[in-house]
TrEMBL record:
This is Multicopper oxidase. Residues 1-17 form the signal peptide. InterPro entries: Cu-oxidase-like_N, Cu-oxidase_2nd, Cu-oxidase_C, Cu-oxidase_fam, Cu_oxidase_CS, Cupredoxin, CuRO_2_Fet3-like. It comes from Amorphotheca resinae ATCC 22711. Pfam families: Cu-oxidase, Cu-oxidase_2, Cu-oxidase_3.
């Protein structure tokens, strides 16, 4: 009987899976989310780019035509492991060549993970010019109840286009003139300001929170609504009320690239509307860059509204007085619902000392004193063409800080952030367990372990504190080589 049930389940999965096909023309559109008109990169003439909704098990085919005219492009499916389809990962220089203007590329992969993801250009630091969107994989049997779904994206916005910003970030003249530019358009919520999200009373909403930010992390909350996290970066977690601490006022935050699934219960009473506050990380934007106090005329906040009643007044913006670490739920406290035990023993340890360095007058980020230079031949092509004798030799991959690991090894990565600012890290192709992460100025890894959970938090993107370290582990179960990419932070594209 048990065997029969398993077979039947397998059959149902097959029967329900469908193929979803999108035809996308990537092109420039004129937008003004904060009132300032500028070109942005949209899809089929639309910006913000569309949300992709698929069901678990679907085959997803996206025919991408690059209609930009003046720039190459690609699409990365952030958080998707692409196990068996690494060539669909969309990371230029790693898994594919850039799609030139006037050319097409077809992405074809399976949505084999449920939860909250996003897609974005993975070419030339291009996505903050607009080429990103939510990617939600619906689970037919989620381990929690909800009635409705909402998506909430938290990002930063610039009046300058990325090629100009990159020049500022990464040229001696540009750096001298402007250093690290702060987001001139401030923060955006769902790609706008004062966004209204309409809700019904007495419902449970599953809120897909995505941080497609360019530079700073974000802190956010629904005013006077308790938030229960049920998913983090596509990993179901034991439901936890993240506001419970500090007498119900604890806040939560997301780093660039991170996502959360959060449940909120709407109120009975529809006479009042409530604010949704998002604030960009003041420490990251100003304080850790030596700009103390932060400029009083720069608004780090954006407000949205949960609308119960369109004819009721909008509430005043709540004030967040501090961004002290103790005000926030620690994402290491999430317990994966599957209670995957800590991976051990470690087969392969990698220690990354990361910092910025001045190379020929340009500030670049370095790993173990070596910067990343994008290769003309994508690393995956190199791995597939040099032959077995050479593919394990890091030298064949060029200036990309390669570490070659064996299939199914338990890999531990120690990341020492020697830099004076926070930095998010994202691993393609895997989720990693986070055993430890220090507070700001927690120092480098001392060579011994502190206390860590038997069932560590697991995710695909983590924020490292300034002058601190993290210990992460994963099983190298995705046989094509996966890059640990340093997400852009402080605007350095390394
Ligand atoms: Cu990714």
């Amino acid at each position: 009987m048990q065997l029969f049930a398993v077979l039947l389940f397998g059959f149902c999965q097959l029967a329900l899976a469908k193929t979803v096909v999108y035809d996308w023309n990537i092109g420039w559109v004129s937008v003004a989310p904060d009132g300032f008109v500028r070109p942005a990169i949209g899809i089929n003439g639309q910006w913000p780019c569309p949300q992709v909704d698929v069901d678990l098990g679907d085959r997803v085919i996206v025919n991408v035509y690059n209609g930009l005219g003046n720039q190459s492009t690609s699409i990365h499916w952030h958080g998707f492991h692409q196990n068996g389809t690494s060539e669909m990962d969309g990371a230029v220089g790693f898994s594919q060549c850039p799609i030139p203007p006037g050319h097409s590329f077809t992405y074809d992969f399976n949505a084999s993970q449920a939860g909250t993801y996003w897609y974005h250009s993975h070419d030339m630091g291009q996505y903050p010019d607009g080429l990103w969107g939510p990617l939600i994989v619906h689970d037919p049997n989620p381990p929690f109840h909800f009635d409705e779904e909402i998506t909430l994206t938290l990002s930063d916005w610039y009046h300058e286009q990325m090629p100009d910003l990159i020049y500022t970030y990464q040229s001696a003249a540009g750096e001298a003139a402007n250093g690290t530019p702060i987001p001139s358009g401030g923060a955006l919520m769902n790609s706008g300001k004062d966004v209204k999200i309409y809700v019904k009373p007495n419902k449970t909403y599953l809120v897909h929170v995505i941080c497609p930010a360019n530079y700073p992390g974000h802190a956010w909350f629904f005013d006077q609504h308790q938030m229960t996290t049920v998913e983090v970066d596509g990993v179901y977690v034991e439901p936890v009320n993240v506001n419970a601490g500090l007498n119900g006022t604890m806040k939560t935050r997301v780093a660039p690239g991170q996502r959360m699934g959060v449940l909120i219960n709407t109120k009975n009473d529809t006479s009042t509307n409530y604010a949704i506050l998002d604030i960009m990380d003041v420490n990251q934007l100003f304080i850790n860059n030596g700009i103390v106090p932060p400029p009083s005329d720069y608004n780090t906040n954006v407000t949205g509204y949960l609308i119960y009643n369109d004819s009721a007044p909008l509430p005043p913006t709540p004030v967040l007085y501090s961004l002290d670490d103790s005000e926030f739920f620690d994402d290491l406290d999430y317990v994966p619902l599957d209670r995957e035990p800590v991976l051990e023993p470690v087969d392969h340890q990698i220690i990354l000392n990361t910092n910025s360095a001045n190379i020929s007058g340009i500030s670049r980020f370095v790993i173990n004193n070596s910067t990343y230079l994008e290769q003309n031949v994508p690393s995956l092509y190199t791995a597939g063409t040099v032959g077995d004798n050479y593919s394990s030799n890091p030298l064949v991959y060029g200036h990309v800080n390669p570490f070659v690991v064996k299939h199914n090894e338990v890999v531990e990565i120690i990341i020492n952030n020697l830099n004076t600012n926070l930095h998010p890290w994202h691993l393609h192709g895997h989720q990693f367990q986070v055993l430890e992460r220090t507070q700001p100025k927690g120092g480098s890894w001392p060579g011994t372990y502190g206390n860590y959970s038997k069932y560590p938090a697991r995710r695909d993107t983590i924020m490292l504190e300034n002058e601190g370290y993290a210990v992460i582990r994963f099983r190298a179960d995705n046989p094509d080589k996966s890059p640990l990419s340093k997400r852009r932070s402080m605007g350095k594209l390394t």
